[in-house]
Amino acid sequence: PLVQKALNELQFLHKKWKEEAEPVAEEFREKTWEEFKEVSNRIHDRKSELMGQMEEIQKETLEKKNKIIEEIKKLAAVENPNHSFWQQSIKKVEDLRTEFLKMGNVPKKYSNENWNEFKETLRNFNTSKNNFYKSLKGSQQTNLEEKMKLSGAQIMWECLVREGVEVVFGYPGG
Fold first, then answer.
1. What is the pLDDT of residue 1?
2. Residue 168: what pLDDT?
3. Which long-range contacts (CB under 8 A, 24 or more apart) does 95-102 make?
4. Looking at residue 65, what is its pLDDT?
5. Cα–Cα distance, 157 to 170 (Å, whole number)
6. What would the DSSP string read from start to end of 77-118?
7. Tell me, what's the pLDDT at 124?
8. Pair 37, 87: CB distance under 8 Å
9. Which of 20, 31, 59, 67 to pair with 89, CA 20 to 30 A apart?
10. Chain-centre distance of CA 118, in angstroms?
11. Are 97 and 122 within 8 A, CB to CB?
């Protein structure tokens, strides 16, 4: 921002120099112009230096953001996840999302592509998570329906079989 402000001011001064400045005595004209030109060149050189630094920082930021995207992709692609995995992953993805959004800018030519890939990756993660919970809900409903079909005696019998009970003593009518 400060560099841009200096460039704007310099542009204004150049315009003023050409259009409004009073003529300078011949013996000072060349020296004054050279000083003005040197200051202008230093400002432009500093701008170029800062732009180079900004490009390097943006490239590093792009690499970091791409690593976050890859980490989220790995979480979404896990096979046979369970409830505990998804709960931990939800927290992890939220932390990664916050970190991604706090990072600085990436090079302009990659900005849209990077943002769209991030959104798509989050969408895929959420789809995987939602599919897991939908399937879990379906299997829970099926289990409930099966259990509701059993009578008290059947439930007792299945518990005894599952526990390996071979002998039961009972009282008739008791």
1. 61
2. 81
3. 96/68, 96/71, 96/72, 97/122, 99/68, 100/65, 100/68, 100/69
4. 97
5. 14
6. T-SS--HHHHHHHHHHHHHHHHHHHHS----HHHHHHHHHHH
7. 95
8. no
9. 59
10. 6
11. yes
27-40: buried (b, 16+ CB within 10 Å) or exposed (e) per residue? eeeeeeeeeeeeeb
Identify the CA nearest to 49 among candidates 7, 103, 3, 107: 3
Selection from 34, 31, 36, 32 nearest residue 13 by Cα: 36
Binned average pLDDT, 10 residues per bin, the chain of 174 residues: 79 80 78 85 87 92 97 92 92 97 94 96 94 83 76 81 85 68
DSSP secondary structure string for all residues of 110-159: HHHHHHHHHHHHHHHHHHHHHHHHHHHHHHHHHHHHHHHHS-HHHHHHHH
Letter for the amino acid at 47? K
How many Cβ atoms are within 10 Å of 112's Cβ, its own excluded?
A: 10
Cα–chain center distance at 147: 44
Q: Distance between CA atoms of 74 and 67, rounded to whole angstroms?
A: 11
CA distance 92 to 72: 9
Q: Pick from 104, 107, 5, 109: which is nearest to 47 by CA?
A: 5
- In order of 3, 6, 96, 114, the CA distances from 67 in angstroms are 32, 37, 10, 11
